[in-house]
């Protein structure tokens, strides 16, 4: 399979905040250290959707990358989310992330303005031209309103620094085509598709659930990689109730991940408005589902 500089079991890490809602850099370092140790992850994505990037400042984003880079070193690949609706701002964020120590950057399709495909391609080329680290494209039309079409992906794959894709397009045919016809390292960005996408050539996943169940997420890929497909299926099915409760039961993954991290006495803290904390009943449901998934 295609190799990648982004890791395999990659956690879309939350951004820990203090009880007062300020950036908790000490907590971020402790959480990152846990995730790449007992947490079973060999890559981290910082400042993504799960990391509440819409509500953190540019200065906070750079500070987070510097702190986590210091804590993790070369034990895991650090990819920094740099997406925005503005190409100039995205370039500035990408350069700042590289300077802060990120091994790669994650750039989302410009949102709201819904640019045509060639404009999208030029946006990503401009970002890739501006940095010296690998770029992962983030295809999530449900949030951005615009797809990176397979043909556009194939053209972008020709750029020497466009190396991967976080795939949230829910298009197994299109993704399979790009995987087969390019050297792009594909990552499932949809928890329930981690195993199906791996089976058609994806190299790993970028997972919100890995904040709290990294070993269970990694175990699915481990089993598949050693040819134990029945075990991979069993492990995949075992973690699905937690996936559903965290990602598809009405609350954003950031909210559910932080609820569980706080319940497990790991750094998380509050979410920033407009998000609101999970209620006590949901927290108990999450704890029960987490316990069952961790026994897989």
From TrEMBL:
Binding site for pyruvate: 50, 206
Chief location category: cytoplasm
Subcellular location: Cytoplasm
UniProt key word Heme: no
Signal peptide limits: none
Catalytic activities: L-aspartate 4-semialdehyde + pyruvate = (2S,4S)-4-hydroxy-2,3,4,5-tetrahydrodipicolinate + H2O + H(+)
Pathway note: Amino-acid biosynthesis; L-lysine biosynthesis via DAP pathway; (S)-tetrahydrodipicolinate from L-aspartate: step 3/4
Site entry: Part of a proton relay during catalysis: 49, 112
Pfam families: DHDPS
EC number(s) on file: 4.3.3.7
Keyword Mitochondrion (UniProt): no
Active site location: 138 (proton donor/acceptor), 166 (schiff-base intermediate with substrate)
Gene3D superfamilies in the cross-refs: Aldolase class I (3.20.20.70)
Keyword terms: Amino-acid biosynthesis, Cytoplasm, Diaminopimelate biosynthesis, Lyase, Lysine biosynthesis, Schiff base
Class in the EC hierarchy, top level: lyase
Subunit (UniProt): Homotetramer; dimer of dimers.
Task performed by this protein: Catalyzes the condensation of (S)-aspartate-beta-semialdehyde [(S)-ASA] and pyruvate to 4-hydroxy-tetrahydrodipicolinate (HTPA).
Similarity section: Belongs to the DapA family.
Protein name as catalogued: 4-hydroxy-tetrahydrodipicolinate synthase
Organism of origin: Streptomyces blastmyceticus
């Amino acid at each position: 399979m295609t190799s990648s500089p982004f890791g395999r079991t990659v956690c879309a890490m939350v951004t820990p905040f203090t009880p007062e809602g300020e950036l908790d850099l000490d907590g971020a370092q402790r959480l990152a250290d846990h995730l790449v140790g007992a947490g079973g992850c060999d890559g981290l994505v910082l400042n993504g959707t799960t990391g509440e990037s819409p509500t953190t400042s540019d200065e906070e984003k750079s500070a987070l990358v510097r702190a986590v880079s210091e804590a993790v070193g070369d034990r895991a690949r650090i990819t920094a989310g740099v997406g925005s609706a503005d190409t100039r701002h995205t370039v500035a964020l990408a350069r700042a992330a590289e300077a802060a120590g990120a091994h790669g950057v994650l750039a989302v399709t410009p949102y709201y303005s819904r640019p045509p495909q060639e404009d999208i391609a030029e946006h990503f080329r401009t970002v890739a031209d501006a940095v010296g680290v690998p770029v992962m494209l983030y295809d999530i039309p449900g949030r951005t309103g615009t797809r990176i079409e397979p043909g556009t992906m194939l053209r972008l794959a020709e750029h020497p620094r466009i190396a991967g894709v976080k795939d949230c397009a829910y298009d197994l045919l299109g993704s399979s085509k790009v995987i087969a016809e390019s050297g792009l390292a594909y990552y499932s960005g949809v928890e329930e598709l981690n195993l199906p996408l791996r089976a058609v050539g994806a190299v790993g996943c970028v997972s919100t659930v890995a904040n709290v169940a990294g070993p269970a997420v990694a175990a699915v890929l481990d089993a598949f990689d050693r040819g134990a497909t029945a075990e991979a299926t069993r492990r995949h099915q075992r973690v699905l109730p937690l996936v559903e409760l965290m990602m598809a039961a009405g609350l954003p993954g950031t909210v559910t991940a932080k609820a569980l991290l706080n319940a497990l006495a790991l750094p998380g803290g509050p979410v920033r408005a407009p998000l609101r904390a999970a209620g006590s009943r949901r927290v108990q449901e999450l704890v029960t589902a987490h316990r069952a998934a961790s026994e897989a």
